[in-house]
Amino acid sequence: FTRKIWPNTYRFYAREIGEASLQKVKIEQSLQKIINDKELVLHYQPVIDLMTGKIIGVEALVRWRHPELGLIPPDKFVPLAIESGSIVKIGKWVLHEACRQAKSWQDAGLEPAFIAVNLSAIELDQLQLINHVAEALHATGLDPSKLELEINESVLMQDIDGSTRILNELKKMGVKIVMDNFGTGYSSLNHLRRLPIDTIKIGQPLVQDIASKSDSSVIITAIIALARNLGMQIRAEGVQSQTQLDFLKQANCHHVQGFLFTPPLSAEHFLPLIEQRKTGTFS
Ligand code: C2E
Ligand code: MG
Ligand code: MG
Predict the structure, then answer these.
(1) DSSP state, 144?
(2) What is the ipTM, given to two decimal places?
(3) What residue stretches are annotated with the EAL domain (predicted)?
(4) Which candidate, 4, 38, 61, 123, has a CA 20 to 30 Å from the CA of 160?
(5) How far apart are the CA of 61 and the centre of ligand 1, in A?
């Protein structure tokens, strides 16, 4: 019996690994031409205001519409794009496309009020970043205060002085800064007040543990109090259950995002949602 199972299992894994590395090679090769070929697409996840239940903003999340492999999530190609440096070009496209989409929703009189774009460590280090942001805003006509840039906690904390310098440059332009995935890396709370950030976003792992681990509720309560005392906005991501939502509401969190409301959607699928929510609310 086992002799029958094991060879099959082995062949199954060998095939899986073979396919996985083949995919990796294919992805690396095609990264070079994905922008020219218009294979990138942005999906949008609403950010909900807990006071009003309305969509106050949206996070843009990149996907790759691969002709053979289908829709590839960022976790599968962004790390490769970072390795090869093509993330800079991709990021430039993302900025422009996100600003263009936000402006066109606003021109149509629709929510959301702001759009958030994710930046990788490499992009933050590039001198061109300031130009890319300025170009995207100028070309699309989006008001700078409507653009938020999300940067991971770990990236910002790695080099506080360097981060502060670049963030100050960005803030001079009028854009807002979000510290993404807070609570998933190691942060010195003392450094929080040195960084010019507007919003702290509590990462999914902490939010997931709200009901199951009492210490994560205590930590979240403390983070919310800290952020509010520092004059920052506080947002929770990865909200999947009513229990998590109820907790975040009573803990005075400003904004939430998560599958409980909706996963990220294509612009086409997002439009009916915001049209329908124009007068209605989520919670
Ligand atoms: P992130 O910025 O922390 O985005 C949150 C991720 O959680 C997204 O995954 C989103 O689809 C997912 N998510 C949202 N709500 C829920 C929920 O309730 N439950 C669960 N389990 N997941 C939820 P996604 O779109 O696959 O993006 C993954 C990461 O890829 C992002 O994490 C971000 O770091 C990176 N990324 C995405 N777009 C870009 C981009 O344009 N540029 C760069 N540099 N990185 C990007
Ligand atoms: Mg993000
Ligand atoms: Mg995040």
Answers:
(1) G
(2) 0.99
(3) 24-278
(4) 61
(5) 6
77-115 pLDDT per residue, tens: 999 888 888 899 899 999 999 999 999 999 998 878 899
Q: Is 74 in the pocket of ligand 1 (CB under 6 A)?
A: yes
* Geometric angle at alpha carbon 43, from 37 and 73, rounded to 5°: 70
What is the C-alpha to C-alpha distance for residues 267 and 275, in angstroms, rounded to an integer? Answer: 12
Whole-structure pTM value: 0.90
**Residue 216: CA count within 13 A, CB half-sphere:** 19
Residue of the nearest CA to atom 10 in ligand 1? 264
Helices (H), 127-238: 128-140, 153-158, 160-172, 189-192, 204-208, 214-229
Residues with CB under 5 A from ligand 2 (ion): 118, 150, 180
In which residue are the tokens 């997002």 written?
270
